[in-house]
Amino acid sequence: MTAESGPPHPQEQPGRTIPLDVSSDSYLLFQDNKFVVKAFRLFHRIPSFGFCIQEHDRPGRLKTEVLKELGVKPGPLYGRLKAGESVVLESGRLLLPSEVLEADIPGRKVCVFGDCSSVLGEGAFRLCHEADVLVHEATLGNEHQKKAVEHGHSTPEMAAAVARTCSARRLVLYHFSQRYKPSSLKKEGGEDDVSELKNQADQALQDCGVEVTLAEDFMTIPIPLRRPSTS
Known about the structure:
Layout: E1 27-31, E2 35-43, E3 48-55, H1 64-69, H2 76-82, E4 87-88, E5 94-95, H3 97-100, E6 109-113, E7 118-119, H4 123-127, E8 133-137, H5 145-150, H6 156-166, E9 170-174, E10 180-181, E11 192-193, H7 195-204, E12 211-214
Parallel strand pairs: 6-8, 8-9, 9-12, 10-11
Antiparallel strand pairs: 1-2, 2-3, 2-7, 3-6, 4-5
Pfam families: Lactamase_B_2
Protein name: Metallo-beta-lactamase domain-containing protein
Domain Metallo-beta-lactamase: 105-176
């Protein structure tokens, strides 16, 4: 902030320098008890970044039948055990959370790539491994790959390759050239159908079960929790 800029907005935070964490090849932007947000470097004509929003794992469900057998009634002790705290029962027995909690529920992960034709370093692949949703640009179709790369952009096949390397569960394509229109808006003999971009990504991922979605304004994508398997 400079003297000429006036007072900051209520939500505005002071600027800060964020160093590159060499061990993870990423930048730590934010963390609290629910999320961690990191950035990673991308290759584009100007500096560009991607972002990984990682939810922390959640404690598993309480094994209520085991607690009943131990004579523990629903109440404050349930909450303490759920929070990972050991408790001493009336009998004097020390009860550990691991004895009465199911496996942790894995946190969800969303990765959003900015404009790019490739990644810089290994940070993106490390952070985005097994992402629930990976959002990646697909500016031009595969047949225009040379032009896309020259301008620092990607094709559906290039985006699919990133999703495959990351073992992502869902690929969301965005940042389409204006030459691509939805079927309802196409002019006869004019623009290409944007659905062809999805077809190209689907074809590149047909053997690994990654769901491909074309982004739309105001789109909402539910991301269900992944419950750990029970034996």
